[in-house]
Amino acid sequence: MKSPDISITPDRFDAVMFDLDGVLTSTARIHAASWKQMFDDFLADWEGAGKPGRTDPFELHADYLRYVDGKPRYDGVRSFLASRGIDLPEGTPDDPPDAVTIGALGNRKDALVNEAIAAGRVEAYPESTALVEQVRARGLKTAVVSSSRHCRDVLRAARLAPLFDAVVDGNLVEAEHLAGKPAPDTFLRAAQMLGIPPERAVVIEDAGAGVQAGHDGRFGLVIGIDRGDNRDALLRAGADRVVSNLGELLR
Ligand SMILES: [Mg+2]
């Protein structure tokens, strides 16, 4: 099979739509550090109170990958505590941060993530920023399409906000009752905001759900970014091409 032409030029396309986390920015490090800070504070208090269970500090790499990475917030709390033989009441997602429940610990971690984003501790992938600048210099429009409610804060913190003509984020999804990825609706909404037909736009995504959204929305070109062992899944989801970083698209 001949590999598809991936040059992003104005004769072929009018716009490029980027997913946020994993494509433009990485917040993985913020999440890991926030888990560690929250658990270490909790474990110190737990030990101080003489309660049963292992209370040595959270291991940034091993514990992160084994117990919390990729899991919903409260499942991560439950799974790590179980590994330490610590049993807490479930509580609810509305518990205040000073409660000692699964819900409260999850909320403490979320608050730390929000603080880190507000403090600007967000990293943009330099080669992704370079691609956004290059396509804009060629006269193409750009959009960010993300499920995150923190999207605008992250863009501001990473100093990327001025580089986009349209933003479809978690807040707009809620306000307009849009179907999230893998449905194509958020990308189609961005195309509508930019005033261009989907076949004249490129979609760039690192998640299978996002690639599927681009494919099902019949966008002109769907590029997957494999940030680690995800290549086959992205191709199966309908990516026309998978790259390991956006520097490969700079021409
Ligand atoms: Mg992503």
Structural notes for this entry:
The protein is an alpha/beta fold. The chain folds into 2 domains: 15-26 and 123-249, Rossmann fold (3-Layer(aba) Sandwich); 29-118. It has 10 helices and 8 strands. The chain has helices at 28-48, 62-68, 73-83, 102-118, 126-137, 151-157, 170-175, 185-194, 208-216, 231-236, and strands at residues 15-18, 25-26, 123-124, 141-145, 166-168, 201-205, 221-225, 241-243. It has a 6-stranded parallel beta sheet. It has a two-stranded antiparallel ribbon with strand order 2-3. Strand 6, helix 9 and strand 7 form a beta-alpha-beta unit. The protein is elongated and about 70 Å long. The chain starts with 14 loop residues before the first strand and ends in an 8-residue tail after the last strand. The mean pLDDT is 93. It binds magnesium ion. Magnesium ion binds at residues 19, 21-23, 206-207. The site of magnesium ion has 6 residues, from loops.
In short:
This protein is of the alpha/beta class and 251 residues long. It contains ten helices and eight strands.
Features:
251 residues; alpha/beta; Rossmann fold; six-stranded parallel β-sheet; two-stranded antiparallel sheet; 10 helices; elongated; binds magnesium ion
The CATH architecture category of the largest domain equals 3-Layer(aba) Sandwich
Q: Could you say how many structural domains there are in total?
A: 2
Terminus-to-terminus distance? 23 Å
Calculate the mean pLDDT score and round it: 93
Sequence of secondary-structure elements? EEHHHHEHEHEHHEHEHE
What is the CATH T-level topology of the largest domain? Rossmann fold
- What about the largest sheet? 6 strands, parallel
As an assembly, this protein is single chain
Instruction: Enumerate the spans where pLDDT stays under 50 for 5 or more consecutive residues.
Output: none
- SS summary, helix count: 10
